[in-house]
Amino acid sequence: MPTPTLDPRFSDPAATARPWAETLALLRDAELYWFTTVRDDGRPHVTPLVGVWHEDGLCVVTGIREQKARNLSGNRAVAVTTGQNTWAHGTDVVLEGRVERVTDGPGLAAVAAAFLAKYGEAWRFEVHADGFGSEGGEAWVLRVRPERVLTFAKDPHGQTTYRLGEPTRTRLPSGSTSASSRTP
After folding, report:
1. pLDDT 10s per residue in the chain (184 long)?
2. Among 5, 62, 88, 94, which lies 20 to 30 A Cα-Cα from 130?
């Protein structure tokens, strides 16, 4: 379990570091996440997505021809945010990490079941080969393994940081990868 560090430069004197279990609950229970990738020319690409927490990472789905999939073939680093769009209540969370594809049948089935349990029939996925299939075509299942997570509490204001893993510098190939591997 990561150790929280409160940053006094950005925190009210009354603030305390948020325990990891509370931050994990915010990540697990959020309904919407803002997923940020970087294009080859350096411009950011941000899109809202639904997601589920599974096997120590946030899982999302993208069509194989979508902009974020193209971006990830060149740079697996992402930032994911969730929280409340208010100044004085709630907590915002920023997750920084690297993406890995989930490609094994049991892993894909477990992620599909997690989406169904969290979001209902509107987000039922069928496992196809090394991803999900839908009316829109084949889709990749991506897991973001957090390397650093920040929370921004608003009452009182406080910034907590957690360091979880070492960054890797590899690209996401278009082929299959092992779900258990940190480096695809």
Report:
1. 899 999 999 999 999 999 999 999 999 999 999 999 999 999 999 999 999 999 999 999 999 999 999 999 999 999 999 999 899 999 999 999 999 999 999 999 999 999 999 999 999 999 998 999 877 789 999 999 999 999 999 999 999 999 997 654 434 444 433 333 333 3
2. 94
**What is the amino acid identity at position 165?**
G
CATH of domain 5-163: 2.30.110.10
Contact 87, 66 (CB under 8 A): no
Report d(CA 172, CA 184) in Å as an integer. Answer: 6
**Dist CA 101 CA 3 (whole Å):** 27
Domain boundaries, given as residue ranges, for the chain = 5-163
CA distance 25 to 43: 31
In the structure encoding, which two tokens stand for residue 61, read together?
């789905």
Strand partners, 33: 49
CB atoms within 10 A of CB 115: 22
DSSP code at position 17: P
